[in-house]
Amino acid sequence: MSAINIKSLIRQDVLKFLNSFDTILTDCDGVLWLHTTPLPNASDVLNLFRKLGKRIFYVTNNSTKTRDELIEKCRNLQFEAYRDDIMCTANLSASYLQNKAFTKKVYVIGSQAIAKELELAGISYCGIGPDVIHENKPYHIFEKDPDISAVIVGFDEHFSYPKMVKAATYLNDPNVYFIGTNTDERFPIDDDVVIPGTGSLVRCVEICAERKAVIMGKPEEYMAKVLMERYKIEPRRTLMIGDRCNTDILFGTRYGFTTLLVLTGVSSLSDIEKWKQSEQQEERDFVPNYYIDALGDLLSYLEELDTETS
């Protein structure tokens, strides 16, 4: 990968680049917004891409929001969005089990979003909410639910030792499905505070259960498979936009999408320079095809392209 600065290209080459894809996969937090604040001109860029005939997918590893909640957030922040545009790991977890004709029950370490998506899929579940240690009730003594045939691990502020005991116990049966929503290690919040991400929780359960989870989110295969099989996207005509190289950019590299890094989130130019020199192939795969300071910086180019095609 070459990591070309979009702004270093002559205008004609930028327009040629913008015409080289039909589908856009975009990460959300760090690319389109920061928490609840939209990044400057990002909505104008994405909505103009759509006006120009590009197919838009919001692809997020966030397991704490349903598709409908993400649509609401997009629209509140002025991003045009529809249900089929949303690829989120809470929904993908339910879809994965639906595709297996799953009729049993799921033990969930995760948020209400996963519960809501399972409900919409007609799948029963348990485990949401706190599960604390009680002095008069040892955590290793619990009544196993014989209907549990899947375990989902997503982001859970109530993650606890009793939950890990239950998840690993159910997973001791090799016939029980093991799903992880994503492997993001930590959230970028503050230089002085580290917030563990879902990947930290998934790894805990994997180590204890001595099994690997099937991961729904970037950079793993399931999300790419859904995009290509359900929506028939063509990898060589697809652009993946992200701010985190070890998920967004690696996802694009693995599955043949052109990659664009924006510098408004996790990864930096110094990271790219380090990975370019790495002796490890996976780290070299973190290097994007292109980068730009912010998504909003594409607006003037898109406006010119819109004028040309009007």
From TrEMBL:
Q: Which UniProt keywords apply?
A: Cell membrane, Cytoplasm, Hydrolase, Magnesium, Membrane, Metal-binding
**Alphabetical list of Pfam families matching this protein:** Hydrolase_6 (PF13344), Hydrolase_like (PF13242)
Top-level taxonomic group: Eukaryota
* Residue numbers binding Mg(2+): 27, 29, 243
- Primary location: membrane
- The entry's active site is 27, 29
Give the GO molecular function terms: metal ion binding; phosphatase activity
Residues where substrate binds:
218
> Which coenzyme or cofactor does it need?
Mg(2+)
What does the record say about its membrane topology?
Peripheral membrane protein
The keyword Cell membrane is annotated on this UniProt entry = yes
Report the family membership.
Belongs to the HAD-like hydrolase superfamily.
UniProt cross-references to PANTHER family, sorted A to Z: 4-NITROPHENYLPHOSPHATASE-RELATED, FI11325P-RELATED
Q: What is this protein called?
A: Phosphoglycolate phosphatase-like
Lineage from the top down? Eukaryota, Metazoa, Ecdysozoa, Arthropoda, Hexapoda
* Gene giving rise to this polypeptide: LOC106748926
